């Protein structure tokens, strides 16, 4: 069924947007659920930076959701899932499930994450592109996420999907400030 993507850099309000979408559903008869990747070691729920949160279940694979009886599914931090998970999203859509997905669109080198590219090829009904405040020049125009190690930008020699365990820090930056 309908696919909605909420994409953008770090600190652009993606999780807040996802939470806003789902918060009213608890007053409806919709059978909905939210999920986020088990590789996110920090969070037991979906947190937005302004303090709002919503219950979410950690999953290793999206495949396990196919047997569920959900009418609406939300998935946060999609970029942390491997490209191979995209086919399960396609199966859910074909089954009639509405899916709202949020995450980073581009990696540390400004390339689309392979799974995000796959999702864009599924003909989403809507793609909400979020922007953040650039942490270097303070323009409200940041679309990239600079990955830093010891405060130095890392653009090369990293796998497309990198751990989110505190080893690296992340800064939203604008096109002018982004170092590839
Ligand atoms: Zn900037």
Automatic annotation (TrEMBL):
Q: Which UniProt keywords apply?
A: ATP-binding, DNA synthesis, Kinase, Nucleotide-binding, Transferase
Q: Name one GO biological process term.
A: DNA biosynthetic process
Reaction catalysed by this chain? thymidine + ATP = dTMP + ADP + H(+)
Transmembrane residues, as ranges? Answer: none
Q: Which residues form the active site?
A: 77
Q: Which InterPro entries match?
A: P-loop_NTPase, Thymidine_kinase
Q: Which organism is it from?
A: Candidatus Falkowbacteria bacterium RIFOXYD2_FULL_34_120
GO terms for MF: ATP binding; thymidine kinase activity
| Name listed for the protein in its UniProt record | Thymidine kinase
